[in-house]
Automatic annotation (TrEMBL):
Name of the protein in its database record: Polyprenyl synthetase family protein
Family note: Belongs to the FPP/GGPP synthase family.
Organism expressing this protein natively: Streptomyces gamaensis
Compositionally biased residues, Low complexity: 14-29
Region Disordered, annotated ranges: 1-30
Keyword tags: Magnesium, Metal-binding, Transferase
Amino acid sequence: MNEASHQGERSPSGARTSTTTRGETVTSAIPAVDTAGVNALLERGRTLATPVLRAAVNRLAAPMDTVAAYHFGWIDAEGRPAHGDGGKAVRPALALLSAEAAGASPETGVPGAVAVELVHNFSLLHDDLMDGDEQRRHRDTVWKVHGPAQAILVGDALFALANEILLELGTAEAGRATRRLTTATRKLIDGQAQDISYEHRERVTVEECLEMEGNKTGALLACACSIGAVLGGADDRTADTLEAYGYHLGLAFQAVDDLLGIWGDPEATGKQTWSDLRQRKKSLPVVAALAAGGPASERLAGILAADAKLTDAQLADFDEEEFASRAALIEEAGGREWTSQEARRQHATAIEALSRVDMPAEVRAQLTALADFVVVRKR
């Protein structure tokens, strides 16, 4: 982990039970979220980034342009204009605030916001295919509608566009921003590879899971939190500290995602019930439950060991009651509560990193509000 990585005390099983940062225990309490303020920040990110994002997608050859437009929710499966859910837009909002943290205008961060959003969606297109996810944002996924080949091609194209958008600026800052983006993308891919490999292992440690999630989610959010500042001329120390904020925010974000992947409301998440359990993911609640010890943990370990001997077809025959039973075991073993607390620990570490960057008070408050939103969100 980077310089802002926290060292928490561990239970005998390896799970953190408290967090210290720079020698002091940090609180895990989350204040009431300024929902209206956060929604305004997210909407500003969409408003400034979407026209540039659409223009980038329009460069793609047919049919990749329309496939990408479907993925972003701009058209339906028949090609008709639509107003689909384009995602939370947290990363564009962070990229614009990053520019303002460095004293630049939010518009300075737009190319970075678009580049990060393109990489994020490149990963979603490929992840949905690799994970076999049939629903995203309350609609059929691209591979389900347009086929696996188009999902792969469009994902690759979005990654290429991300680099084009930055390099076309032709500035030294753009080169620095591109290096950060490509490094984050490589870590993201590392994390996805780790995630897939863990599905076929009986045991994964808490440390391995956090490393994987730091790569898969933390790296790109860290980049989003620094890329606008870099485009605005910030020095590496400032950019690195903003990345530390984003890295720990990413771990908090993924911990909440892991909770929603098991216990989330499908109406809110747009995914199937028990989606992560269906895919045999070794997410934080599962890993923490297995590490906890005790009767529930041991029963869960036995069930997962038996799963390893089954074929995919046999696993697909599991009914809702089976997944509900497993979710109950994870909760009984403490996996749900530990993951909830881990989200708050990572949130506190992210907020602490902000204290090491000089920035306008309003921007600091907005970055804090976005961090609060990440931890209490329901989708």
